[in-house]
Amino acid sequence: MVTMKSSTEEIELIRKSIRALCEKFPEDYWKKLEEKHEYPKEFIQALTDEGWLSVLIPEEYGGAGLGMAEASVILEEINRSGGNAGAGHAQMYTMGALLNHGSEEQKQRFLPRIASGELRLQAFGVTEPTAGSDTTNIITRAKRQGDKYIVNGQKIWISRTKYSDLMLLLARTTPKEEVAKKTDGLSLFILDMNDQKDNITIRDIDTMVNHATTEVFFSDVEIPVENLIGEEGKGFRYILSGMNAERILVASESIGDGLYFVDKAVQYANERVVFDRPIGQNQGVQFPISKAYMEIEAAKLMRDKAAAMFDSNHKGGAEANMAKYLASEAAWKAANAAMDTYGGYGFATEYHIERKFKEARLFMIAPISNNLVVSFVGQHVLGLPRSF
Ligand SMILES: Cc1cc2nc3c(=O)[nH]c(=O)nc-3n(C[C@H](O)[C@H](O)[C@H](O)COP(=O)(O)OP(=O)(O)OC[C@H]3O[C@@H](n4cnc5c(N)ncnc54)[C@H](O)[C@@H]3O)c2cc1C
C-alpha cells in the first residue's frame, strides 16, 4: 500500500516551522547573496541546526527518520518564501543511494556525522563535458590498485563542491567497450574531498543563477575500497534511486517557485492601479496567473503521488519524472505570468522577480532536461520506439 509517514497535521506543522525559519532569511538576504555570488552559509547552518537537512536519515543514525513526502514539503516551503533550496537539497537526494545500497559499516561511519552537521554530503558528481545527458558515456575512470581506487578524469556542473566534505561520485571502473550493457561497469563512491584536496582541482563556473556550481578535475585521486557503495560495476542502478529522489525534490522546489510567483503576482495585480483600476481586474493579467496556479496544483498531486510511492518502496520512476516535468513547466508559466504582471518592475532586482525567474528556468534543464523526461515517458512508459 502507498502510505505517508506523517499525518496532514504533521505535514502542516513542518510547513509552519519552515516558514518561521525562512522569515529570518527574507528576499533581500537572497538578493545580496546573488549580487556577491555567495553561498547561503547562515541559512544552511540554520537548516542543519534545526535538523531539517537530515530528515531522511533514519533515527538510529541520528536523523528524523522521515520520508520523501516530508522532505518535499521542506524544500517547497523554502522556495515559496523566495529562498533557494538548491543550496542544500543534495544532502537529501544523495541519501537514497547510501541508505539503500551502502553497507552497515558505511552508514555507521557517515550518517551520524552527516546528521549532526559535522560532515556535509552536498556534492553529486555525475555530469561530464563529453557525455552530457548520456550518463553511460562518462569517462572518468576509477582503477582498482590494491585496497584503493585511483580516479582520473573530469566532471562539470558539480554544484556545492566548495561547501561539501563528501562527494557521491560516479566513475567508470570498466570501459564501456568491455561491458555487455552500457549501464554496467559504472561504480559509485563516497569521495572524501578534504582528504584528497591536493589531487582535486575545483574551478567556479560563472552562471545565470547563484548555484555554487563548478568544474572538478581528478588527478590520481585515491578512494579506499571501503568507500565503494555496493558492488563494483553496479553504480548506475544505485544512482537511479537517488535520481528519483532528486526529481521529486526538484519538483517540490519548482512547486515552491510557482507558488511564490503566484503569491507575488496576485498581490501586485491587486495593488497596482493603471487606467483607474487594479491591473488584476483585466482578464489578460488575471487568466495567466489562474492558469499557472491550476497547473502548479496539478503538478503537486503528481509530486505527492511520486513521494508516497518512493516512501512505500513502490517503483515510482515514471511518477518522479512526470512530477519534475509538470512542476518545472508550471513554475515557468507562473514565472512568466509574474513577469508580465509586474511589467517593467519585474526587471528591477529590488522586486526579486527576475532572480526567481532565472532560478525557475534552471529546473527545465537540470538535473535532467525536460526533453529527456518526455522521451523516457514515450519509450519506457508508453512503449513507443526508442529514439536513442
Ligand atoms: C546550474 C547547474 C547545476 C548543476 N548541478 C549538477 C550537479 O550538482 N551534479 C551533476 O552531476 N550535474 C549537474 N548539472 C548538470 C545537469 O544535470 C546537466 O546540465 C543536464 O543533465 C543536461 O546535460 P547537458 O547540459 O550536458 O546537456 P546536453 O546533454 O548537451 O543536451 C543539450 C540539449 O540537447 C537536448 N538533447 C540531448 N539529447 C537529446 C535527445 N536524444 N532528444 C531530445 N533532446 C536531446 C537536451 O534536452 C538539451 O536541451 C547542473 C547543471 C546546471 C546548469
What does this molecule look like?
The protein has 388 residues and is an alpha+beta fold. The protein is built from 12 helices and 10 strands. The chain has a 4-stranded mixed sheet with strand order 1-4-5-8. Strands 2-3-7-6 form a 4-stranded antiparallel sheet, with no helix packed on it. The chain has a two-stranded antiparallel sheet with strand order 9-10. Helix 4 runs parallel beside helix 8 (235-271), helix 6 (95-101) packs antiparallel against helix 8 (235-271) and helix 9 (283-311) packs antiparallel against helix 10. The protein is globular and about 80 Å long. Bound molecules: flavin-adenine dinucleotide.
Give every kind of bound small molecule, once each: flavin-adenine dinucleotide
Strand content: 15-25%
What is the first-to-last residue Cα distance?
Answer: 35 Å
The succession of helices and strands, N to C, reads HHHHHHHEEEEEEEEHEEHHHH
- How much helix is in the residues? 40-55%
Mean pLDDT reading: 96
**Got a strand count?**
10
For the largest beta-sheet, the strand count, sense and barrel status come to: 4 strands, mixed
- List the uncertain runs: none
Structural class assignment: alpha+beta
Strands in their spatial order, largest beta sheet: 1-4-5-8
Treating each run of at least 4 consecutive H or I residues as one helix, how many helices? 12
**Molecular shape:** globular
Radius of gyration: 21 Å
